[in-house]
Amino acid sequence: ALLFGLMCGSSIGVLCFYGLMNRANPRKEILTAIKQNQFHVVYQPVVDAATLQPGGVEVLMRWHHPGAGEIPPDAFISFAEAQKLIVPLTLHLFDLILRDAPALKKCLPPGSKLGINISPGHLHADSFKDDMRKFAASLPPDHFQIVLEITERDMLNQREATKLFEWLHLEGFEIAVDDFGTGHSALIYLERFTMDYLKIDRGFVNAIGMETVTSPVLDTVLTLARRLNMVTIAEGVETPEQAKWLRDHGVNLLQGYWISRPMRLEQLMTWKPDVDPD
Ligand code: C2E
Ligand code: CA
Ligand code: CA
Ligand code: CA
């Protein structure tokens, strides 16, 4: 039911996708899609809240299905999880990024962050550490800072997560808590684990400017993040008013349609921010 809700939320392509998945063999669909190169990636810039200069990108996956058209990741990622295909799918994502890496190196300055979404099914897989090490070793050396975006609801086992995060930090990865504020666990998780970034869910950002009680909550979250030395990123920034509010409240980085939609590599190559800080 959750899956259905997710998929009906978006578009016609999604509805077609639902029909298709009912009919066909979903495992095979995804494996075929990998083989036939139906997936691609798009990049969305993340900018400094004060200067609006890019500090990196988040990598987002897209599926162009020959029959169903564009299938959004909210639909196929959960399918891949359910079908135990998230590891091959993420490895394919790594291949797509590696294919783009020489061009990315040209348009993103050294130290640029590469945000990659990691699903719980991969995080808990036996191959996870090896997969991450191999991927990092295949990127151009000393250029990108990989940031793994993990949602708070995926950090259930405290001991395991603590150990894994220590390992990731030793290996040079950074960790972002994704979609912060949408789970149940919330604040306590921030204290428990060492994480570098806090991504404020766009639900919070949306509410800025409306008369709700959200801003005090957001203020509290930001204060806590600052105390814990976490860098804050607001996602889903769609208006200059939101950007201003966020900057005035000390949010470090911004991401959203106001700055740029996710883009194909070719567009990213020539992209410059065209919004003003004020
Ligand atoms: P997310 O990690 O929270 O990614 C941000 C989503 O917000 C993206 O949706 C992005 O296109 C969208 N977005 C960015 N700016 C704005 C804005 O200003 N307004 C609005 N309304 N939306 C904005 P997208 O690409 O459809 O991805 C949806 C989710 O699918 C992602 O949410 C992430 O959880 C998952 N996903 C995407 N690519 C991957 C991937 O390669 N691997 C994994 N495991 N998950 C992925
Ligand atoms: Ca993300
Ligand atoms: Ca997010
Ligand atoms: Ca999400």
Automatic annotation (TrEMBL):
The keyword tRNA processing does not apply. The chain holds residues 239 to 516 of 518 of the full protein. The lineage of its organism: Bacteria, Pseudomonadati, Pseudomonadota, Gammaproteobacteria, Enterobacterales. It comes from the Bacteria. It is found in: Cell membrane. It catalyses: 3',3'-c-di-GMP + H2O = 5'-phosphoguanylyl(3'->5')guanosine + H(+). Residues 23-276 form the EAL domain. Keywords: c-di-GMP, Cell membrane, Hydrolase, Membrane, Transmembrane, Transmembrane helix. Its EC number is 3.1.4.52. It is a multi-pass membrane protein. It comes from Leclercia tamurae. This is cyclic-guanylate-specific phosphodiesterase.
